[in-house]
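Q: Here's a chain of 257 amino acids. Please give me its 3D structure as tokens.
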Amino acid sequence: MSNPDKYATAVVIDRRDLCDDLWVVRLRTDCELPFRPGQYATLGLELNGKVVERPYSIVSAPEETDVEIFIELVPEGALTSHLYRLGTGDEILVRRKTKGLFLRNTPVDGQAHLFVATVTGIAPFVSFLRRLAARWRAGEWSTEQRITLLQGASRSYEFGYLDEMRAMAAEVPWFEYVPTVSRPWEDPEWRGETGRVEDVLRKYADAAGIAPGSGAVYLCGHPGMIATGRAIMRRRGLNDDSEIFEEQYWPDTKAAS
């Protein structure tokens, strides 16, 4: 049995499927679950007499009532294949403490920010942007520096927050959203940017004014993208420790589950 001091119970109150292997859930926990943008919640299920758990970046802003998670199915994964079967009303375990250091010191006044994500790697950035946009609307935050979010996917239906991010970019003057599709031949209706996110990184780093001493890059998602993106930004002269930040969704040598 799960330890009630360690785990709370969460109920699936909404589910939105993007395609066969990507979906968004909203969870309502039976306890407070404080977090800041960039942190993750650890979800679990009791399977064969033990708790199987994995960390998932939180999409919702801290002020929201429910916890929103963007999940990709790993067919042979220890947990996601079981999570995939859950619908509205089903219960899941969640650790009572969130963790993670990503975006801890963001934003930095006077600095341009470039967020780079692959598919579900957009999650911490959405959380951060929802909170920042709310502060901007309330007159609690203003800046002349831009934040650019560059997101890559194979096909456009994998952009789980396309409409929300486009609407935010149209509303606030300091934000730009650039989705890019790497398989446009499989997505003939797509009219946006094309290529892997790494392929267009230099272009949008230039446009965002990312330069040593005046900008920072935040990479989240696929480890291959992160390794390539980091190398590109290092060659640009950015400091590997203080101007390039990352959140890998699984180690380069291990499949996510």
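Q: Can you summarize the key feature?
A: The radius of gyration is 18 Å.
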